[in-house]
Design a protein that fits this description.
Length: 379
């Protein structure tokens, strides 16, 4: 057995021993213990990561105990934190990274905290700055310009969301449908919630011909001025896109990051300030790719989960095939991870693609004992 597999099995065994000695163990640790044991049994290279809502880590009685999870061998990377005071509080807990709409603010706080704690250089060197939906506080979310902005801010991870189209492509979008709040029809015809288009009902080709997702709705600092996105403009021309703001997809995102690296390494951007630091970061940036799917839930639970109309996506098997297939075709197993609130997809990833890490997204601890979680993973 390979060294990394032995190490992961040891972590799983340690966590399982903790659970056996403490049957009332924290539900988040129980979840990760069971997930880690499953991943290890199928040859995963790294332990799963817990990605909780930041509210579960902060306050007088936090639900998530970072030190306890670290002791069991699990990393903790919360979402979605933009407030400097909360960022500092999370850093004080020594979380392993933060997912943020404002990677620029996160980087600024990190520089200050690093300067104030020179003895923690190793911690800050490994800290993961994850640009949520590319960094939607600065550009329209989940678009090539947003990913360019995230790279400009030296994010070490580009976090995003995926659905599956009629042609089996991992289209990048947060909602089950192309949201009229963000997207418009390229031909100028009306597009509203009444005639919304679900990802599962359109091909990736048609999506890129039909929609431009450049609407602004996330604060005054969000901009869609294309002079701020020279790499996305150049890449859109190369890919023959009608706009840099068309919906993109996982494999195109991989190509875009390679294009960005070339742009600043030996292309048109070579002589610009920070060119070298940009291409060197882009050369190793990671991709945190979420499967936007929910288990089949009773109506009341679906409404509480923010999907009152229920799930309108393909099944978990199709999600995993499309997304992990894209990762493998592009040899991105060493730079990509799959995250989800729907653990059915994560279980499949661990079983079928153990070389791809998994991130367990969580919120309210009560959901861990609900139908949202497969019975084998419940506390």
């Amino acid at each position: 057995m390979k060294k990394h597999a032995l190490a992961l099995m040891a972590i799983a065994a340690t966590a399982s021993a903790q659970q056996a000695s403490n049957p009332t163990m924290n539900p988040f640790l129980t979840l990760m213990t069971k997930a880690g044991t499953h991943a290890a049994a199928h040859g995963a290279k790294t332990p799963p990561v817990l990605s909780p809502n930041d509210a579960t880590l902060l306050g007088p009685n936090p639900a998530v105990n970072v030190a306890e999870l670290h002791k069991a061998g699990f990393r903790v990377i919360p979402w979605t934190t933009n407030d400097p005071a909360k960022i500092r509080a999370l850093i004080a807990l020594r979380v392993d990274g933060i997912i943020s709409d404002r990677p620029d603010i996160l980087q600024s706080v990190l520089r200050e905290e690093k300067a104030a704690a020179p003895d923690a250089a190793a911690y800050f060197a490994s800290f993961d700055v994850a640009a949520h939906r590319g960094g939607r506080g600065l550009r329209p979310e989940n678009t090539l310009p947003s990913f360019e902005s995230g790279l400009d801010q030296l994010a070490t991870t580009l976090e995003t969301d995926t659905g599956v189209t009629t042609d089996g492509v991992s289209l990048i979008w947060h909602d089950q449908f192309l949201n009229p709040q963000s997207c418009r029809k390229s031909d100028g015809s009306p597009y509203t919630l009444e005639n919304k288009v679900y990802t599962r009902d359109i091909s990736s080709v048609e999506a890129q011909k039909t929609f431009i997702c450049d609407k602004l709705h996330f604060g005054a600092d969000q901009k869609n001025d294309l002079t701020l996105s020279p790499v996305a403009v150049a890449f859109a021309k190369q890919e023959h896109l009608i706009s840099p703001y068309v919906p993109t997809y996982a494999e195109q995102l991989f190509r875009f990051v390679a294009f960005y690296t070339h742009f600043y390494k030996d292309g048109p951007g070579k002589g610009t300030p920070d060119a070298e630091v940009r291409w060197r970061n882009a050369e190793t940036v990671r991709f945190n790719l979420e499967t936007k799917i929910l288990p089949e839930l009773p109506p009341a639970m679906a409404k509480a989960a923010g999907e009152p109309d229920g799930n309108h996506t393909v099944g978990p098997e199709a999600f995993v095939k499309a997304l992990c297939g894209a990762i493998k075709r592009n040899r991105m197993e060493g730079r990509a991870e799959v995250q989800s609130f729907d653990y059915r997809t994560l279980i499949l990833v661990e079983e079928q693609y153990p070389e791809i890490p998994t991130y367990y997204l969580t919120g309210d601890p009560k959901t861990l004992s609900s139908e949202l979680v497969p019975s084998a993973l419940r506390p």
